[in-house]
Amino acid sequence: MPFMWGSRWGGMRGDPAALIPSLPRDAKIRKFWEGSDFGVAVPAQNFAGIVAVHADAEYLLNFRKEIGLQRLIEDLGRQSGVMGVMLFDADQSILAASDPAAIGNREADPFLRAAWESGGAKGRHLSEGGQEIYQVVTPFRLDQKRIGLLRLDLGTGGMAEAVRQAHRSILYYSLGLLMVGVAGTVAIFWLQARHTAERRVLEAAVVREQRLSAMGNLAAGVAHEIRNPLNAISVGLQRLRLEFAPAEPDAKSEYARFVQLLRDEVGRLNSLVDQFLTLARPLKLSLAEEPIGPVVAEVIALLAPQAAERGIRIEQIGPGAASRIRMDHGQLNRALLNVLLNAIQAVPQGGSVTVATEVAAGTLRIRVADTGPGIAPQHLDRIFEPYFTTKEGGTGLGLALAHKIVQEHGGELRAENRAAGGAVFTVELPVAGGGGGRRNT
């Protein structure tokens, strides 16, 4: 009869021949379940009858060995940072462990009992053999029923390194967020400042347009009322000069001089009325494609005597004089005349004015630079406003009229101070064929 060896002998484990020397040498040693079959029958739930399972015992044990909980716990115990894994029953006996030699032992640990009674997970720090361990105990449930406790021993070395790595990551992340935040804040403030500046420019432009419109309407009405009396005065002076001159030579000469003075003043008033009307209503331009050089030369020739009287030198430079633009010759001449006259009046005796022309990116630039005192910073934003002037006896219409004429040509007129001293006025106009400009006729 074969010798049967199994768990019925309690704690006897190992080689039977070594444990029991009295065994016959020819005894056939096999485990008690070898060659046995097992059957299980349970009542069926969905039909009348039973469900029966019949299998070889060794197959079932091998299946348990392959997929059993012990193997899973052993695999878990071999993971990095895991010092040990144990499964306890309700009496704190070890059912499975990453160290198979511990199976069957019982641990009388109050910490385990406290975890069992609380029904929740618990953790604690331990020091074993000079090594820090963090121990976690949690109830183990099967089909919602608590059947034991699962204890996991973790080496804190890996956790400490993970914490340090997390701290470094948090630090880098925080620094990155801080840098992004600072950059974002700077960008927001910059965009907000630019938006505010643009809004202020637009608001100032709207206010200026509203003021110009109101003043233009007023000026147009006043100019219309003034022009008719001026025409009558001019006709009357002409008749006085021709029909009522004294016979005596000396009196006649004085009379003629006096009448001419009155006519000159009437002409000046008529010019002011024309400027009022020009600012008050849209210009009607007669555009033709012409070179800019002759216009600049005409303006310089017209103002050269006035500049020479004060010892002011006018210099014309730049290769852009041959450039052609679509312009109203008379109106553009009028605009450049006002700009150059303003520069001459701002320069002290013995100074100079430079008129430079250049072409870049389809735009003609005429720069009128002087060696005067420059423009006060608080006046730069108002320099082209009608009726604004810093000159004694000035009307404040010349630069405003020049600005309007340049705008009507699709260009731009700017004023700024030079670093070397003095002011520079820049007229920008689109070159013919380069687009831009208005097509008024």
Secondary-structure map:
Blueprint: E1 3-5, H1 16-19, E2 29-31, E3 37-43, E4 50-56, H2 57-67, H3 69-77, E5 82-88, E6 94-97, H4 110-118, E7 122-128, E8 131-142, E9 145-155, H5 156-243, H6 249-280, E10 288-291, H7 293-309, E11 313-317, E12 324-327, H8 329-346, E13 352-360, E14 363-370, H9 398-408, E15 412-417, E16 423-430
Helix pairs in contact: 2-3, 5-6, 7-8, 8-9
Molecular structure report:
Helices cover 45% and strands 24% of the residues. The protein has 441 residues and is α+β, with helices and mostly antiparallel strands. Among the domains are: 175-277, Helix Hairpins; 284-430, 2-Layer Sandwich (Heat Shock Protein 90), CATH 3.30.565.10. The strands form five sheets. A five-stranded antiparallel sheet has the order 6-5-9-8-7. The chain has a five-stranded mixed sheet with strand order 11-13-14-16-15. The chain has a two-stranded parallel ribbon with strand order 1-2. Helix 2 (57-67) packs parallel to helix 3, helix 7 packs parallel to helix 8 and helix 8 (329-346) runs antiparallel to helix 9. It is rod-shaped, with a radius of gyration of 54 Å.
